[in-house]
Design a protein that fits this description.
Length: 489
Amino acid sequence: MSEFSEECSKIFKQNGITIYQFADKIGVDRTTLQRMNSGRKLPSRQFVKKVLDHLPISVNEREHLEHLFYIEKVGKQVYRRRQAVKELIENFYEVSKSMTEANYHRKLNFSIEQFSDEKSVNSISMEVDIIDALRYIVIDAFKRSKEVHIYMNNFKNAYYIMQQMIQESNESSKKATCHQLVNLQRNIQLNLGDSGIGNVEILKDALPFLVSFKGEYDLRYSYGAVDENYLGTALWPNYVISEYQVLLLSVDGKTGILIENEDIAKNYLEEVKKIQQKYQPLISFVGKDEAALNFLTEEISHKLFKYEYSTSINIAEFIYKTISDEDFINVEIGRQYVSSYKNTQPIAQYKNFKKIGGMSWMKEFMENGILPEIYRNYIKPYSKERRVEMIKEYAKHLEVSQNEYLLKNTVNDQKASFGFNLVDSNGIYICISKNNQYYASIYIEEIGIYDTFADYIEGLIEEEKVYSAKESGKKFLEQCMKYLEEADG
């Protein structure tokens, strides 16, 4: 019996509710209700909703049951994968902030001499020392190398390598490159491995690092291990290599061996460079401002757009119908950005195209008329009258749309906005803003990550985390007017 069925059965027993009487009272099928409580068969979402509407339970108890039902319906692996995407989007700003604002000084918790005595091989048996050793490798490479190259695969504490490389590159003029090899899952629908959860986990650190690191990030992927015997034995499946050190790590990242021998490090580097040739680059493009706009209009606009997601609504689409030359601070550049929306209009020709947007920056816009991100640099603040005109026009657009949805319970956070478009059958175009400034655009072509993000959007619609296409326009207008009333006091 599933946890959902157990909890439902318990509530029925605790409240003295009989299956048949309850079914007759609320007008549902007795057999279906009996099968639900016994765990024999899971009913539809609509059936469960009607049952929960009439049970004597609190709001928190209802949310818990809905949560259990969703996990049971989609399966634990699918649920965990969708949660991983949700966490990636929601935590991007905090991860980026911790990577860039952390200032880990060279007063390490251990003495560097501990790893630099007469022995060239040292064992490490505590995770805290593993983390310090990771930082030490980066610090030492920036100190001794003319050009810094750090090679690693994907492992639990790779974040600390990335964080330290950002810090060192910000304080140094040396050219630095981080080389990382990762294994992805191509078909997330197969009941194999982690069903694509690992694909998302890799991006949780990779995306913040990619847009924050001043040096080069050479991120490459393969489907499964290319050579299970490379760089050590199965006992040490993870590694970090510099010009001077090799750190071999266990699966859990809590123990390892640090080798401080340039000849050994050279041999390992030669080996990993051979393996690197069997991996493909994961990132096709990363850039911002005009470079990102040019890539969008020249490389992406002709592709078939299938999904769009953002924690905010599409700004270009929002202002497109009401914009005039008088609104621009810089007419030429401003129009170039707005026209990027027009250039991607073929997306509307795809009948199954689905778009989800949130309200993350609308509160500030309704208060002062200032657009977020790059637009605030080129477009003047809007008057109250123009703001009302714009939101009414956009609400009408949502009301007639058959494929656009407004996110429920959007966090009104001005710190960051995360959005992505899925194009053709394997392209992911990601746009990120930070502190109301356009941060970066990233393009990836890989089917496993594409399917993971597409599944997340379908899950939001399926789980009713969005308003229906019919409701979205009304809810958008109501919330914007509420923001305006609050601003007026």
